[in-house]
Amino acid sequence: MGRVVATVALVLCAVIASATAQTVPVQPPAAKKDAAPTPPSGLQLTPTGAAAAAPQDATNSEARQRALVERINGYLTNMQTLVGDFVQVGPDGGRTQGTFYIQKPGKVRFEYNPPSPIDVVADGSSVVVRDRNLDTQQLWPLSETPLRYLLADKIDLMRDTKVVSVSADDKFITVVVEEKQVMVGTTRLMIMFDAKNATLKQWTVTDPQSLDTTVAVYNLDVTKKPDPNLFVINYQRNPGSFSNQ
C-alpha cells in the first residue's frame, strides 16, 4: 500500500487493470549515467561530460537548466485543474490504467479501472488510499507526502525539492528530484514534460529498494472542472474502514 502512495504522490503524484502496449507509449526511463560534479546551486550538470567543460560552458549549462525549471514551474503553477487518463507500468512489468482528477490547491483523485479496487484521494489536508474489495482505507497527512508539491498554488521545484538533474532534447524536458526520509530511505522521481509546450507526459518513481514504477498520462484537459465530491474523505470512519464516496 505504501508503494501506491509513493507512486501517486510523486504524481503525481502517482498507482491495476491490464492495459495493452498500444494504449499509450510509455517512454523507458533514461539509462543511468555516472553523476557529474554538483555545482554550488545544487543542480547536477547535464550532460555528465560537463565535468571537463570550460567554466563558461558550465555557467551556460546551469543557466539553461534553471530556465527549464522555471518553465516547468510556470506550467505547474498555472495548471489549476487537470483531468486525464493514465497507464502505469509497475516494477514487474504489469500494466494498469485509470483516470485522475486534480483541483488545486490540495485535491487529487486517482481511480484505477477494474479489476483494481484502489482509489487514492487527497482533500486538501489528508491523503487516503481506499480498497473497495477489502472495504478498508488508510489515511496520511497531505503535508507528509510529496503530493504537497504538486498540489500547491505556487510551485517552485528549486525551493521545495532537491533537484538533482535537468535535461532536454527534441521530445522531452526531464527533471529528476529526490526526497530523503529517515525511516524510509531515498525516493527518486523523474518527471518528463513535452519539449514543445511543457505539458506533463509521464513520471518514473524509483523507491528506496531501487524498484521503478512509470506512469504515462494522456487525454489531458485543463478546462474541465472536477466534481467536488470526488475529493471527499469520510473522517467518521476509522482508518480501517472504507467509505464509498
CATH topology: outer membrane lipoprotein receptor (LolB), chain A
Q: In percent, how much strand structure appears in the residues?
A: 35-45%
How far apart, in Å, are the first and last alpha carbons?
Answer: 20 Å
Average pLDDT works out at 76
Give the second-level CATH assignment, the architecture.
Answer: Clam
Number of strands: 11
Task: Provide a descriptive summary of the structure in words.
With 245 residues, the chain is α+β, with helices and mostly antiparallel strands. It has a single domain, classed as Lipoprotein localisation LolA/LolB/LppX (outer membrane lipoprotein receptor (LolB), chain A). 16% of the residues lie in helices and 35% in strands. It has four helices and eleven strands. The chain has an eleven-stranded antiparallel sheet. Strand 1 and strand 2 (95-103) form a beta hairpin. The longest helix has 24 residues, at 55-78. The protein is globular, with a radius of gyration of 18 Å. It starts with a helix and ends in a 24-residue tail after the last strand.
